[in-house]
Amino acid sequence: MTTTPNPFQALGLPERPDLTDEQVHAAWRNIAAATHPDRPDGGDLARYTAASAAYAELRSPWGRSEAYADLASPASGEPDTSPIPVIPGGEPPPVPPWQPLLALTQIPARISSGRPLRLAIRSLIAAGLALIVLQLIPGTPAAPADIVGLILWFVLTGRKDLAPPPER
Amino acid sequence: MSVWTWLKFVTFLWLLRKAFKLARWLILAAAAVAAWPVTAVAGAGYAAAWLRGWPPVRLYRAAAWTLIVTAAWLAALETSDPGFLAAREPGRAWGVGWDQLTMAGLARTFALLAPVAMPAGLALAGLIWAWRIYAVTTGLGGITASAPITFDSRQWKRQVRTAKGLTGAPGAVPLLARGGTIPVGGTIRAVGHRWHPVLALPAASCARHMVIVGATGSGKTNLMIRLWAGWFTATTAAARAGRGDRPLLVVLDCKGGRDARRKAERTRRLLYGAGARRVAIWPDEARLCLWDLPPDELAVLLYQMIDSGTGAAAYYADVLQAVISLAVLAPCGPPLSTQAFLDRLNARWLADAWGDGRHLAEAEHARAAARHLPDIQLRYATLLRRLGPALDGPGTLAEADAWYCILEGTRERSVAEAQAMALTELTAHVATSLDGEPRAMLLAADDYSAVSARVPLSNLYERGRSLGIGIQVSAQSWQGLGATEDERYRIAATADGGVFVLNTPHPEPLAALAGKRRVLETAHRIIGGAWGDGGTTREQRAWTADPDLVRRLAIGQACYIHRGAATFVQVARPRPSPLSLLPPPAPPVAPVAPVPEPHTEPAAAPDPWPSPASLDDILGPEAPR
Q: String of b and e for B179-216 (b: at least 16 CB within 10 Å)?
């Protein structure tokens, strides 16, 4: 239901959740006075509409915190699926026993919907350190153990950069 | 003994003490240098814990994970050189390392010893960090007297920063975690609870009674929506796996207004992402039928919906109740609509309905109440007209997976109270109905204080407890939980699913639920403006959930109080997995009909434009046009 990409910008306000009602109201009144379409010079309908919509969004503390969270959210550009009154189709099928295997096929999509850049940096660090280990101590029992450690670090720290699976 | 001898003796003792202390530090330094790979790992772990505000357990768990590396190293060693010679290998590598004191040599030694140095170093870092926290918080460490306060304040900031970073990661706080738990957000600090990076509640906690208190703008709605979505996802997953019933979520948004519509839309989007098939928004898009209730319950509800007063009005209340019973429990069956009910509040209808000769007493009651019937009909006609058509059917709660009910408690309190009563009764009916599909139910009331004047929250709680429905209630303050202190305590103390306290100006009664913990307080003797060697340590009691800390919570931070312990958490904004989102609806492609040019009248010259100060006179006092 977000009306503008950045309602704070539309009202010329700083992007902060702790603005007061008075600040928002004053900002809207100034813009409305300058851009109202009933002005002798015709005003600026587009700007007035944008400011009015932004004011409607930011007029309450809850609205401001929501709008701020929308801005801070990295996934704010996700597809809008509302409103969908009823999803057609029957009940979802039961969980198949091979679900864990299906989960593996979702990993590419989870990477692309997560933070692929961070994952790439992590994998580069792990790969670089693994190469250094192989260069320093080739053929020793510690080399495979160190590489296991690097893989473990990559998996444990990188899993939070994946998007959650669909059922979560 | 002469003074000189005594002075020599004292000086000797002082030197001896200092020599012991120096020797101890030198031995420690020598050990640290000798075991430099372990020291390096311990130093790095300690620095990381200090900078990120980790508790020592975080380092212990990291040490435990690195034992996998040790196991892999032992396996590789045994494969290449059988005979359990592992014990000799680190010593050999360490000894060789001292001959190669170059960067490459040190790196090689570290790589060779890493499988042993990592777990040992991280465990050592955990121990040192635990000692440091103990020393500073008890007053044994630190340079200045304010060290404990500064240390705690600094660590809180770092813990918040770490928790925020975690909640920002896409996969760290999903709607549902492994084991069917509901993640809430990144843990800032755990006092008494076991520490985990992400606070996750068992789904059963949401299916019991939970209280959420937070001022407007504190992030209460985000938290509630997350809990609803998490509970829905967990219950749906359990139902799909054959371990429970399908979920039915009923949300009562008791304040209403524009924000309620936005919240409803957001909740619906999230629940669709979580697997819901139908999410209904009442009364905007869906209706329910009050007349589906069993006749006895319907009669009681209709009587309760009218504010009948006390004292002298009690007589009228009895007449009202008798008339409602006669109208609803008539032999021909209960009314099926508002109009049918109002038609029955008529002397002739009641006389005909009960005049079959088999209900002489009821017919007599109907005759006696005849003179009151026009008044009663007028009151119900007014009430039911104000309630609108949304409770006149068709529709049942069981038809959807979730209902978001918007009650205009701020604008029309009496109507919202009647609606809340009706919706609660319909929910109870679904829970007790034997002919329908059994459902796992959660009734969530957001800002219930807006409608709680006639249905106390404690009644709702007890009702939910007896029916096996989870009840989740939110209020803006401690005072909003109930009319009296007794009722507030009854609600808060019976919240066996836990209490979430967000930023609120009076958190003491809720913080008291977590109780107090034993802490050590050290008093130092001051000599000449500096700390002396002497002092005492004694046991004291401190808040488990510090009310001052709760009062200072920022937006989105909450304190979860459960079973005498508290966890401070940075609540993550609920977001469904991007993989479960449906594509946006396709834009309509219907041809656009040409719109004729509007006929314009020649306009008169406009009036001079008013100043911003008088703009409200034109645009209205509140909303923009």
A: ebbbbbbbbbbbbbbebbbbbbbebebbbbbbbbbbbe
